[in-house]
Specification:
The chain is mostly helical. The protein has a single domain, classed as Up-down Bundle (de novo design (two linked rop proteins)). The protein is built from 7 helices and no strands.
């Protein structure tokens, strides 16, 4: 009878340890999933701020850049693509388009000395550049969160829990091919 009680207590302890381990594994995966969502949300907030600033920037630039309609059209298209994007992949693609379009806008602005000296333009350009730096930092955090999630969901024994939860591999935030090209600097 004493042996039965001891075996029962040991069995209950083993069961509690296994249940505790499974709960810890589950909570770990949930935490990683929510970190990815939080990281993307942080990027999304900055993308919205950039969109708002671009509206002001375009207004300040329009009067100076009468002959550069194609650049302004591309910025407007990029803004529209971002506003119409609903998934992370679509927003990431729209962000890549916007980043390359902004480079073109600022490069063309170099040809307009009055615009470069305009205080509103300078402020908006600085604000957009500041937001771009913040977006880059948030992308790094997002990719770190995604990488940790992907590794964890492929490791044993987490892979079994991840499969039960139908967790699949997440995509990293990737740089557009145009941004990988060397910059042609001419003096």
């Amino acid at each position: 009878m004493v042996i039965g009680i001891i075996l029962g207590v040991v069995g209950a302890l083993v069961a509690l340890i296994i249940i505790g381990y499974l709960v810890g594994m589950y909570n770990s995966l949930i935490r990683l999933k929510h970190n990815i969502e939080k990281a993307w949300s942080n990027i999304d907030v900055l993308l919205k701020q950039r969109h708002d600033e671009l509206t002001k920037l375009i207004s300040s630039v329009k009067g100076y850049m009468k002959f550069e309609k194609s650049v302004l059209t591309e910025v407007t298209k990029a803004r529209t693509a971002f506003m119409n994007a609903t998934t992370i992949a679509q927003k990431a693609a729209a962000d890549n388009i916007m980043t390359s379009t902004l480079k073109s806008l600022f490069a063309v602005a170099e040809n307009y000395p009055q615009l470069k000296a305009n205080q509103n333009f300078i402020q908006f350009q600085q604000r957009v550049s500041e937001i771009e730096n913040q977006i880059a930092d948030r992308r790094e955090f997002y990719n770190d969160s995604v990488n940790t999630f992907n590794i964890r969901t492929e490791q044993i024994p987490y892979v079994f829990m991840a499969n039960m939860l139908h967790y699949t591999r997440k995509e990293l935030f990737k740089v557009a091919e145009a941004d990988r090209q060397d910059v042609d600097v001419q003096f």
